[in-house]
Design brief:
Number of strands: 8
Strand order of the largest sheet: 5-4-3-8
Order of helices and strands: EEEHEHEHEEE
Low-confidence stretches: none
Helix content: 10-25%
Length: 127
């Protein structure tokens, strides 16, 4: 489990435009990294739009969303709700596993692996 002061795992994924995105490309900026299970579902839409709505209130803190969705679906989600921040595709779950948010879940008695809705504030020092 990641704790306060832990070094943030590396993030290198494709964004909603199919371009490579790296956490280190943001330099010494604070970054709110949030994980959501699936683009354009009610809970994920509420979560993402809520962050969009407070983006102007959190100073120089970048917002980055990550889900297993492919870039085309992320782009459609971004355009539909005018989110305005990077949505990254973690189809192989590598970053979700590094952040320890790829978990066993259950719904209606069925168990499956999926994203645990989570958020991490990465400081300018990378922790």
């Amino acid at each position: 489990m990641l704790t306060d002061g832990s070094k943030a795992p590396k993030i290198e994924l494709l964004d909603q435009n199919g371009k490579k995105f790296s956490l280190v490309s943001l330099g010494k900026m604070k970054v709110l990294v949030y994980f959501y299970p699936k683009a354009d579902t009610p809970g994920c839409t509420q979560q993402s739009c809520g962050l969009r709505d407070i983006a102007g209130l959190i100073g120089r803190t970048a917002i980055i969303g990550i889900s297993p969705d492919l870039p085309a679906k992320q782009l459609k989600f971004d355009e539909k709700f005018e989110l305005g921040f990077p949505l990254l595709s973690d189809a192989e779950h590598t970053v979700a596993k590094a952040y320890k948010v790829w978990k066993k879940k259950s719904m209606y008695g069925r168990e499956y692996m999926g994203i645990e809705r989570s958020a991490f504030l990465v400081g300018a020092d990378g922790t």
